[in-house]
Amino acid sequence: MRVMLMIAMQEFTHTLTHPLALLVGGIVLAVAYINGAGGVDTLEIVNAQADLDAVMVGFGQSWQATSMICTIMAAFLGATTIPYEKWKHTLNVLFTKPLYRKDYIAGKFVGLTAFMLVFNTFAVMFTGLLIIVYFREPLSVSDFLLRVIAYIIVMTMSCSLVIALNMLIGVLSKNILVVTSAAMTYIYFDWIWNNDRMLGNLAFLTPMNLYNKLINPITTLYPTLYDTLTPFTLWFSSAVPYIGLMLIEILVFLLAGIHLFTREDKI
Predict the structure, then answer these.
(1) d(CA 149, CA 141)
(2) Nearest-angstrom CA–CA distance, 147 and 141
(3) Domain span holding position 10
(4) Distance (Å, whole) CA 23 – CA 44
(5) Which residue ranges traverse the bilayer (predicted)?
(6) Using CA atoms, how far apart are residues 14 and 110, in angstroms rounded to an integer?
(7) How far apart are CA 73 and CA 159, in angstroms?
(8) What is the pLDDT of residues 143-161, one digit of tens each?
């Protein structure tokens, strides 16, 4: 456990200064500013026409764009972290020390997930701050905080699933171009292409569809998590089955990656 946490901390620290993280951070800040400063007119209309808290609706204006950007970052970080070290041959040095391969994979996953938690928290809080500055405070601070915290957790879980899936891809190949292409293909099929055509009834198992179900588990005027007319407890009880399913998928992909990596003779 101690070794795994050391690897997780090292991965977290390394990712903080990763060029992709800095680039995506700038893009998310720009999206948050546009949403906070430019979406006030829309929020005024919603505030006048509906009884729900328009501040939460403000999050719904950018959640798809922000989520997709964060997913792209999670996919590329997850897919390239292991092939990059294989390419640099640093794994050969690491595994001369008393280090289990499962601890290495688990530590990488925990470190990247911790980074996405911090990144998502910063992005969501910055968005909320701008909405409050340019529009107004939420009607209920406690309900607002509950929904924002839930939003951060849901987004981080979705990123964790994407990381676990793309780390599995990274285990299968040490060619960075191959895993990068695979990550781009995944993003296209999951976020852009209509995967219902190929997967049919199983399409809801994809990370993007599960994420959408967590945000909007029941049909409401606005996404359920942002609809303050829908009690938070109703959203949570409706989202629990999808939370469980997402956790199972994360575990399956992570264990598959660990299993394949521990059986690999040549690194």
Answers:
(1) 12
(2) 10
(3) 2-263
(4) 32
(5) 63-84, 105-136, 148-169, 176-193, 239-261
(6) 13
(7) 9
(8) 989 999 999 999 999 999 9
For 220, counting Cβ atoms within 10 Å of its Cβ (0-12 exposed, 13-18 middle, 19+ buried), the class is middle
The one-letter code for the residue type at 82 is I
Extract the tokens encoding 149. Answer: 């915290």
Q: Which amino acid type is present at position 267?
A: I
Read off the DSSP letter of residue 226: G
Tokens at 178, concatenated: 């191959």
Closest CA to 120 of 69, 84, 162: 69
With 0-12 / 13-18 / 19 or more C-beta atoms within 10 angstroms meaning exposed / middle / buried, residue 243 is middle
C-alpha 46/C-alpha 58 separation (Å) is 10
Pair 213, 204: CB distance under 8 Å: yes
Residues of the chain below pLDDT 70: 36-39, 48-50, 86-99, 194-199, 220-221, 264-267
CA dihedral sign, ordered 222, 224, 227, 230: positive
* Angstrom distance (rounded) from CA 220 to CA 117: 28
What are the strands, taking DSSP E only, across 63-202? none
Q: Label residue 97 left, alpha or beta by phi (over 0 means left) and psi (-120 to 50 means alpha).
A: beta
The tally of domains found in the chain comes to 1
DSSP code per residue over 169-221: HHHH---HHHHHHHHHHHHIIIIIS-THHHHGGGGGGSHHHHHHHHH-SS--S
Give the sign of the dihedral formed by CA 2, CA 260, CA 181, CA 189: negative
Read off the pTM.
0.86
Q: Look at the block and give the residue holding tokens 């909320």.
A: 128
